[in-house]
Amino acid sequence: MGRKPYLFHNGGAVFPSSPQIGRKASVSNCLSFRLGWLAAIWNPPMKRILLTGVVAALAHFPAFAEPLTLAVVAPKAGLFDALGEQVRQGAHLAADRLSISLVEIEETCTDGSGPAIAEQIVKAGAKAAIGFLCSESLVGGLPELGQAGIPAITLSVRWKGLMEDANKEKWPFFRLAPDSDSEAEKLSEVILRDWAGDAVALLDDGTIRGRELTDAIRGSLEESGLKPAFTDTFRPGQEQQLTLVRRLQKAGATRVFVGGDRNDVAIIARDAKAEKFALTVLGGDAMRAADEPVPLEDGVLAVGLEETPQGPTAGQLTAELAAKKIAAEGYLLPAHASVTILADAVGISSAMGTPLPDALVATPFETAIGPLTFGDDHELTENPYRLLEWKGEAFVPVPDRTQ
Question: Of 221, 401, 181, which Cα lies nearest the Cα of 303?
């Protein structure tokens, strides 16, 4: 059998671009459709002119596409092995359908590992790399990737200083994850939008993360004129929180944000229900954890990342995951999305003759986690956090009409 062709990806459609399986006319039509779509959504007139010229030129040249190789950088051992497996599964689900070759590179998350990882990526002939769950894998390696023009897409690292350095040095580093401020911004937005007329309480568990997140929310609320009716630091890891719940009730609070882990939130919600106290409970991204030992009550809210396939291919991907008995959790969908983004971007780069990093900027991509766009700062242009509600056995997105 001959080499599998590389396929351009456009939302729910897969377009053949190899002379072995498609004639010149069909490939040209496919590329014309994709580039025509981009021309319609890219605003700058010069980009439209360039795209129109490329579409016209495709009709006069033979169809040809080089095989695409991407590097997947993720842990294969230790505490983060399970997270690394999520990355690999998501990447392979997308790459196998698009006939993209993946090179797996182990991420050790140790200091000084960045240069060696970058060297492996370059030697593998990868056009781009995804994964990078740890900042140690990027520090020291981004200069070499930048010199080679190889974009690196992190699914996890939220350190703002690294992105600031990358933008200053013009390294092709992109973040397919929220930055360190996005969670507090979304939580503040939800509280100000939905709870502005209610008595709001803010609780934190005394940890650095819980306290900093709650303080950021309190500052944002007070800047907007909303003063919390009750604030407190509770002791985490307790079997019950009845005293805390009764204090909330006495203070007249009907809405509470809890800066703590999932089990503490579950206990507070359970005890409020036992006291027949109508309390709406909201947590942060830490809520995306195992539903144990105390299960969540239906109706508990959280701000987090969706773990349900989105977009035109959602049904197909959901069925494939079910058939393979794979859960769409953690980094699986972001890894899938990053592969399809790069597939689209490589097609644009090849057709327009522009560097791959440039094709990633200001281009709307349809992905398994919804439409995404990288801004000039290489960050997502929209906050990826969503308001979710626990129903039965999973968090589900709160419909826009009620947000």
Answer: 181
